[in-house]
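U., I forgot to send this yesterday:
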Amino acid sequence: MRVVTATNRDLKKEAAAGKFREDLYYRLNVFPIQVPRLRERMDDIPLLAKHFVELSAKDLNCAKPRLTRAAIAKLQSYDWPGNIRELRNVIERAVILARGGGLDFDLPVTGPSAPLARRSAQSDSSTSSPARPKFLTEAELQRRERDNLVQVLEAANWKISGPDGAAELLGVKPTTLPSRMDKWGLKKPERETS
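Result:
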């Protein structure tokens, strides 16, 4: 008989502390496999997300929703304290709510499970030079927003909507971008003819 077990606890330490039966530890510890936490293998998230979207759509007998690059980036910015089970549950919930459209993930933004990007930004601002303020002025915020929009438009080859369009990459409605582009005077550069 073979038994496969899984735990996030250090059973060797637990057995040494008398919190886990030592004889049972040695019976189970025939061939241990260490699997890193999901937060330590963020590159796996796109494939796992795609797999879970397909499974959820099949299990729920609903149309398969679109998994966008913006949605994957959102998943990769979260630290997944609940590991792969949490990822699957978040995706299943998003599939239910998407009703065949684009996926949007409802992830917590506060507490110990705050997104990694936010935590690293906070630690960067606290470790940077003390003269730098921990906030942005309206002008700086506007400049950064404009620069980000230009970067996204260039990455999307100035495509506004549709798959891999700038709106999808930003996670906003396609009708939002033209007004932002007008606000900052952004226009698709004309191709140079030789």
